[in-house]
Backbone:
């Protein structure tokens, strides 16, 4: 394990007037580690994810990212152009609704190829070949390379969004309810795919989910949020099998009830 966290979060706070989105959240994420963030609707987990991924500026606190060439930088100290470049290259963002993370008016291959062009790829043949390889990796028939995403099923759209995000081999991926809204059988297949890709590529990831089974399958560590604050965190199995905070106990027991 690296001696330097990939992401260090210090006192992150986001307020909406008097309402708390998230308050005083601090943690470190290490290379190759998957952190799950769980809690009921309104607990602040999506607000926290948006602050971490530079989509929503916090009122207080810092998000330090260990860049490849400059070492740790304060994400909100970067120019907007630098933050945008980071999200297009070294980070990936997987949205719950894949249409939010895809360009629906261009082909599947172009969706994947655009990310490669963002990191300097210019050879059309090589880009097309790599896009085809990634469709295969996410279990989409390469014959669909020139098809538009609007012709894809929900599960295929989510897999295409994953290919678009991972083709540049980012070191950090943010996932917001990645299996939300999918049929149970499609969810299971997608979770197996995500777990394999995260392990094979050595990705660090932050996964927001309300589904504790998803958290158990994907995350090494878990943070439990309630009313914008982290009430418990630790190793995933430890938190779910022996929850200490009453709110975590309630979450776990509600899942176990028949």
Residues:
């Amino acid at each position: 394990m690296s001696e330097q966290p990939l992401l260090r979060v210090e006192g992150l706070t986001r307020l909406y007037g008097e309402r708390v989105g998230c308050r005083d959240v601090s943690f470190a994420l290490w290379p190759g580690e998957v952190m799950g963030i769980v809690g009921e609707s309104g607990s602040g987990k999506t607000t926290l994810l948006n602050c971490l991924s530079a989509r929503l500026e916090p009122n207080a606190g810092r998000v330090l990212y260990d860049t490849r060439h400059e070492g740790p930088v304060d994400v909100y100290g970067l120019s907007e152009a630098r933050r945008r470049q980071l999200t297009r290259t070294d980070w990936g963002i997987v949205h719950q609704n894949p249409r939010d993370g895809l360009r629906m008016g261009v082909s599947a291959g172009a969706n994947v190829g655009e990310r490669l062009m963002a990191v300097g790829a210019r050879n059309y043949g090589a880009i097309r070949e790599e896009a085809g390889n990634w469709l295969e990796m996410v279990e989409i028939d390469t014959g669909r390379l020139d098809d538009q995403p609007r012709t894809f099923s929900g599960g295929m759209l989510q897999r295409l969004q994953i290919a678009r995000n991972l083709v540049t081999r980012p070191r950090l991926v943010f996932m917001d309810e990645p299996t939300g809204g999918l049929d149970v059988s499609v969810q299971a297949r997608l979770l197996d795919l995500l777990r394999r890709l995260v392990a094979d590529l050595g990705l660090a990831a932050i996964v927001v989910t309300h589904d504790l089974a998803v958290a158990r399958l994907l995350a090494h560590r878990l943070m439990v949020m309630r009313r914008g604050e982290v009430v418990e965190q630790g190793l995933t199995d430890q938190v779910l099998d022996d929850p200490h905070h009453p709110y975590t106990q309630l979450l776990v027991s509600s899942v176990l009830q028949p």
About this structure: The CA atoms of residues 136 and 142 lie 6 Å apart.
